[in-house]
Structure to design on (305 residues):
């Protein structure tokens, strides 16, 4: 059933697949694995995850949640992530004033990654997607949130599959189409997965909005705390092709109005107000994308650095 919530529509799982390039799957992990992973991450996130921060005009802004990056390509015992691997898996991290924590994935987290991989394979047998990293987010209560955004494409490439697993408290996950700002929202109780595919990063934004604590579905173990893991596949071919802005700082690859563009300084004050490319994203095969990126997305800089 469609329900109007302000300007936001709460939709059923079936409707979501018709309205947005996204898919909700319930109880994807065996329930014991979901419980054990939740307990492990509740503990680990308290000890090791942290709020990142960035500085805009001298003022430090903290993320209203704690986060950590898990590099699934690292074998147990490999210890600290190397700088190269951190740069690839932690896009924008070098721009952060307080960078994101990098943690080693446990066996439980790897098992969860295998379940997520199998679920994607079941829905898209032809897909070669396989998760290489997971970004953890911890939302302690209704004030913790993530605002409207699409994920950086630098290390993921065009039209990436990104899979979010929710553990603990039930929060709302919202998707907004950039062309007309229509919003759909889905409740994400414990052990629910949302798959964002196709052009979800190119044409839509997503968020976990602030909520009154009284509207959050508490979990028997986690209470108001929600933990999410977003599984992604990094493309090593792209890491070598990262472009610096003309001011020398890293740039991020984003998409707007049907074109890719590189923007300066994702987290701080951009040196340039506008940088555009002339690369349309639609229907572009990955090989073409790499080729064009290697040749350089020629940037038109709106104002001088
Ligand atoms: O917590 C969520 O479900 C969303 C997190 C998110 O958007 C992200 O990690 O980029
Ligand atoms: Fe995101």
């Amino acid at each position: 059933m469609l329900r109007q919530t302000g300007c936001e529509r709460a939709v059923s799982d079936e409707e979501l697949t018709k309205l947005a390039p996204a898919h909700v799957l319930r109880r994807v992990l065996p329930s014991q694995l979901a419980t054990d992973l939740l307990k492990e991450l509740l503990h680990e996130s308290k000890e090791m995850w942290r709020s990142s921060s960035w500085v805009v005009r001298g003022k430090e802004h903290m993320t209203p949640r704690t986060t950590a990056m898990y590099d699934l390509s690292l074998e147990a015992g490999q210890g600290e992530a190397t700088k190269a691997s951190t740069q690839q898996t932690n896009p924008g991290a070098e721009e952060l004033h307080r960078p994101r924590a990098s943690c080693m994935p446990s066996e439980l987290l790897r098992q969860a990654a295998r379940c997520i991989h199998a679920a994607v394979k079941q829905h898209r047998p032809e897909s070669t997607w396989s998760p290489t990293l997971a970004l953890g987010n911890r939302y302690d209560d209704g004030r913790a949130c993530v605002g409207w955004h699409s994920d950086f494409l630098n290390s993921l490439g065009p039209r990436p599959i990104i899979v979010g697993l929710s553990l603990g408290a039930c929060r709302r996950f919202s998707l907004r189409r950039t062309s007309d700002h229509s919003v759909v929202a889905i409740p994400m109780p414990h052990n629910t997965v949302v798959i964002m595919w196709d052009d979800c990063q190119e044409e839509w934004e997503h968020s976990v909005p602030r909520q009154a604590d009284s509207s959050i579905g508490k979990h028997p173990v986690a209470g108001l705390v929600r933990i999410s893991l977003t599984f992604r596949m990094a493309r090593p071919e792209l890491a070598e092709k990262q472009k610096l802005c003309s001011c020398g700082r890293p740039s991020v690859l984003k998409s707007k109005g049907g074109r890719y563009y590189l923007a300066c300084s994702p987290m701080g004050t951009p040196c340039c107000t506008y940088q555009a490319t002339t690369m349309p994203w639609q229907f572009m095969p990955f090989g073409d994308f790499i080729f064009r990126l290697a040749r350089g997305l020629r940037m038109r800089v709106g104002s001088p650095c």
Q: What stands out?
A: The radius of gyration is 19 Å.
